[in-house]
Amino acid sequence: MKTKFHLFICSTFILSIVLTNCTGKRKLQKGNYEQALERSINKLRKSPGNEKAAKTLDQAYNLNVKNRMEDVMRLKNSSDLFKWEKIIVHYERLNYLYDEINRCPACLKVIPDPNRYTTVLDEAKSNAAAVRYDLGIEQLKQKTLVSAQNAYRHFLQAKNYIVNYKDVDKQMQLAKDAGTLRVVMEHIPMHSRTMQISNEFFESKIQEYLLNMNYEFVRFYTPEEAQTYNIKPHQYIQCRFDDFMVGQVTIHEKEQDIIKDSVILKTETLPNKEKKNTYGTVKVTLHTFTKTLTSSGLLDMRIVDANSGAMISQNKLPGTFVWETRWGWFNGDERALNDDQKSYVKQREAYPPAPQQLFIEFTKPIYNQVVGKINSFYNPYRI
């Protein structure tokens, strides 16, 4: 049995090697030189003496280099504006293979002198950076928000290829300044004749959110900041409460006559020390009260063009908060009450929150809607 088991293990191992080598060979035959290369390199790391993997590596590497260099020459002679970026991809892939082969001693025996494309890669990056830089300059000349944003993206790409290319940092800053949408969040007016309520908390929460929004091409200001720094806005965010009510009271009273049968009325101990229960019916009249204070409002949120006054976006955002207290009392035998009814009679009428707190509570769902709408509207201004 042991001999058969060992034969099975050995045959399985040999089969896996054969299949792996065949897979690499098939990839090569189908022209998938990249996959054939990766499979043969991995195989030679695990099994340095694998002749089939070595043969596949030799053929796949030379064919891969040949094909990529032909693509590079074709791209160089083309009119493709972004040809240097595509050439960079070829050179970086060839350099990756150079590193992989150098980390595999068995691979170096097959490819003893793999090519590394350092100078030509640097040249391609320099040419790609020049193309992006020039496109950025052209976009800046158009002097629109969108063109300035496009210019920033071109300069950023140029910087990715050559970190200190010309004055790219200066041009990026100019493009960002010119491409930034300036938005003033106006103060939210309050009109309440019957009670002193402040919306300062609600408005401050929105301003805090806007301050922390990480949008590259949008900058939000308070009216005071806009005045202090002489900011000319592109848009205004205007919020107004169409209507709101705070603490509308509703009291619900319920009276119940409750009868419960088979209740132990008394327990006696007989002369023989046995217990004897006397059962009967108990009655109670239960009075329960539920008091609710409903606070709600409707916020009109608009985004307005600062130059024309035209409304760009409008949303009606509702919010509601319900506060509740409950209590009760009874006449009769408490044993007729269930646990839930007993909890009622143990409670007392609670004092409601102050009007200011009720206002804050119903504006919380409105706040979530406000920041959601702002996020959705300004999301296109990310890089």
Please characterize this protein's 3D structure:
Helix content is 51%, strand content 25%. With 383 residues, the protein is an alpha/beta fold. It has a 5-stranded mixed β-sheet, with helices on both faces. The chain has 3 domains: 20-117; 124-179; 200-381, no CATH class. The model is unreliable at 1-22 (pLDDT under 50).
Helix-and-strand structural type: alpha/beta
Counted beta strands: 5
Note the main sheet: 5 strands, mixed
Sketch the topology as an H/E string, one letter per element.
HHHHHHHHEHEHEEEHH
Keywords:
alpha/beta; 25% strand; 5 strands; single chain; 3 domains; five-stranded mixed sheet
Write the layout of secondary structure elements.
Elements: H1 2-29, H2 33-46, H3 51-76, H4 83-102, H5 105-110, H6 119-141, H7 145-161, H8 168-179, E1 181-185, H9 200-211, E2 218-221, H10 223-228, E3 235-269, E4 275-305, E5 311-332, H11 339-346, H12 355-378
Parallel strand pairs: 1-2, 1-3
Antiparallel strand pairs: 3-4, 4-5
Helix pairs in contact: 1-2, 1-3, 2-3, 3-4, 4-6, 6-7, 6-8, 7-8, 9-12
